[in-house]
Design a protein that fits this description.
CATH topology of the largest domain: TIM Barrel
Protein name: Beta-glucosidase
Structural class: alpha/beta
Strand order of the largest sheet: 11-8-7-6-5-4-1-12
Radius of gyration: 28 Å
Number of helices: 23
CATH architecture of the largest domain: Alpha-Beta Barrel
GO biological process, one term: glucan catabolic process
InterPro entries: Cellulose_Degrad_GH3, Fn3-like, GH, Glyco_hydro_3_AS, Glyco_hydro_3_C, Glyco_hydro_3_C_sf, Glyco_hydro_3_N, Glyco_hydro_3_N_sf
GO molecular function: beta-glucosidase activity
Family: Belongs to the glycosyl hydrolase 3 family.
Length: 782
Amino acid sequence: MKRILISTMACCMALSLSAAKKKAKELLPYQNPKLSVEQRVNDLVSRMTLQEKVGQLRCTLAWNYYTIKGKNVEPSELFKKDIAEGQIGMLWGTYRADPWTQKSLENGLNPELAAKAGNALQKYVIEHTRLGIPLFLAEEAPHGHMAIGTTVFPTGFGMAATWNPALIEKTGEVIGQEIRLQGGHISYGPVLDLAREPRWSRVEETMGEDPVLAGELGAAMVKGLGGGILSKPYSTIATLKHFIGYGTTEAGQNGGITIAGARELQESFLPPFKKAINAGALSVMTSYNSLDGIPSTCSKALLTDLLRTQWGFNGFVVSDLYSIDGIHGTHRVAETKQQAGVMALKAGVDADLGALAFGRLEDAVQKGMVTEAEIDVAVKRILKMKFEMGLFEHPYVDAAQAKQLVRSDNNKAVALQVAREIITLLKNQNHVLPLSKTQKVLVCGPNADNVYNMLGDYTAPQEEGNVKTILAGIRSKLPASQVTYVKGCAVRDTTASNIAEAVAAAKQADVVVVAVGGSSARDFKTSYKETGAAVTDSKTISDMDCGEGFDRATLTPLGHQMQLLKALKAIGKPLVVVYIEGRPMDKSWAAQHADALLTAYYPGQEGGTAIADVLFGDYNPAGRLPVSVPANVGQIPVYYNKKPPMPHDYVEMSARPLYAFGYGLSYTTFKYDDLNIEETGDTQFKVTFNVTNTGDMDGDEVVQLYLHDEFASTAQPMMQLKKFSRIFIPKGETKQVSFTLEAEDLEIVDQEMNHVVETGDFTVMIGPSSDNIILKATFTQN
């Protein structure tokens, strides 16, 4: 009897274990990858508590969420606490390193450790929360992933100077790959604010002043980042910044008010965003500014009526850092942060970057300020993308792959090509460039050998040797005996100049290359706001004159830079001036007195090599200005596509910019001819013409097509870029260029705010820049 009892008990235990295993293998509907995304989302949301739902809408600052222990990374106690208390579903800046975060090469994450950190955080959330919902990791990526050990590209302002969408798409592919290899999912960028205010501190992040150029390049970047197909292994959720009108704030004040009419928004500011959304962007970030008294972060007209209803946007909207809080604290249109959070949610914001205001939504539901159903709408938008990206099945990444592939030789080669293509030659008197490799060269100036001044804002600390400075680039071309270096002065600091030493060295040289301009290099002396924007401080001597928070009242180079330039000019040696800059700075003196002048913007980690390639003729420059360069700050705003009447001259000076939008020189010359316009369909016209390289060097030409609607029901720009192409043409050869103008190219916004094509005459203008139109013809739209 005893044996029978034991046997029965053993059998029951076996059956019980078998049943338990079977039950463990039975997936809940949201865990079943065979079901549709919609089914999985609905099932998951039906199981979530209000706290869990709100947690998915909160994006917290995450660089203190990990602890490095030797070769391993573990979740920090702060992370565990925030997960337990808030059920957080999205993190920002987990891998970020810079003076604001106090993360450096010594205590930050390299790519291998970053991947391990992401895995550790995902594992903790999956194993220690009730439903095991994986995290979204959002990372800054305007010109490369802002993390240690990644590839640093030129800033957006520079990338726009390539006028090369195909190359920018390759850049996006590299950025997306490096983010995903390390366990990130959301890339903040591209920045599509129009740069019509050069005093503004964030011009460097934009893709210029023109809606067509910015739209085409922004769309190309989005395509490179995956084009919204989240099932691709390296696809990220591209987040467009900043919605809307943030780059045209009054007086160039970062976050200030924007004055723009509804038609101007439709004609200029919104099209780049729409183009990028059509290319697959799945996230849009609000901006800090207000328009017509309405903070962008609580504008239902923008975030719901326009973005979702009119455009059909099916992604999610995220606030800029603490911009929801700013509805209360800055703009003063909400009496409490809780009310601000409710206003933002109802307007169409789905995720709170900073997570403070949305942290009060649970209580707001209890008070009847917002319904749980309204929260469900936002939650579903975010969860949908977590499922589409496959995070529930594949939440982890391979740390060994991250170590091997992030900043690979291929990725650095792409960065070098972008750096070459951005360089814009503005003056080359008596063909002083390219330089001979037999000449003795003095290299000087504050930006000649400063690693961080090459990179721009939103850049992580760099290992020694990764960034090529101008001095390093020139030294790679010449024997050491032919190169002398004297700094001369700093960007801003006037206490450490050695101009006399630079002058003495110039007398011994055959040619002087001086690198001036600005800097967005953050340092550990600078103070920062809670949003990460730098705080100007007269007591702190820093090189930083640009980058978020560093708005300028003037555009002239600061410190002793003008004294250095004038002292070097007085020597009488050929003077080559290189501007490293985050905005179009005042170049009036250099335009008049330098023998050669070029801008390299912030050219990124390979910038020094690229600049040296151009200086010595190993690469023929073809960068084109993505903005107009003012001759004087009093001309601002000075963008090219103004509506009539055209600006008239001032008492003191011309109203024309110093350098026009689209301008840039080459070491060779080009001829344009044989323009033909043919109507090929209903509201479709084919424009063809020939371009011949008439010089002695192979080179790229950037051909630009502008259009003017001669008479319309609303005032139209005197010229508006519609098509462009960067074309390589060997010396002596001719290439036929063909553009097709479609209905969208002829559209205007009429008096009733409708997008329409009106009948009438249109003038086509073709040339190498907006102020150098070589071919012109008119066609009629019937």
